[in-house]
Amino acid sequence: MQNDGGIMDYDGGGYRILVTAPEANVWSTPERDFRDSRLEVDAGKLGGPDANRIGLVCRADGTSHYFFIVGSDGYYGLGIFTDGQAALLGQSSMQPSEAIITGTAINHLRLDCSGSALSGYVNGVQVAGVQDQTLTHGQAGVLAGTFDEPGADIVFDNFVVLQP
Predict the structure, then answer these.
(1) For the domain with range 6-99+106-162, which CATH number is right: 2.60.40.10, 2.40.50.200, 3.60.21.10, 2.60.120.560?
(2) What's the predicted TM-score (pTM) here?
(3) 98 alpha-carbon distance from chain centroid
(4) What is the pLDDT of residues 33-75, one digit of tens each?
């Protein structure tokens, strides 16, 4: 499937997103609505810049969602996308974490969306946590994105959604 920002398809046993535009995010969600959920995925960069976005989204309704992202450069962010704008929650900029394996490595990502609590984990280590009551339910899925340089080629595997 192709849209203005990239190409999404199953490839080699995983779900692959190639982001072809700069400053773009591409996400994919199954058509299921969740309130509280725990999302997990193994994800990594196949090619493109290390300054990228690899992550999970919860409570997506087509115009808004929460996101937890990491970059292949070792940075992470937890935030909300609403009214056409992304904003980090509990942090003023993407933050570095030694829990993120950089480069073409696979990282295990987890996003917990439970009530007003949002928590992001990388390889079993909690790196982010905030409280926010803006979004209460929606779809869950995966996200890939770029900053200044296009060409982020991201693969996702073992995606699961757990409900309490």
Answers:
(1) 2.60.120.560
(2) 0.94
(3) 18
(4) 999 999 999 999 999 999 999 999 999 998 999 999 999 999 9
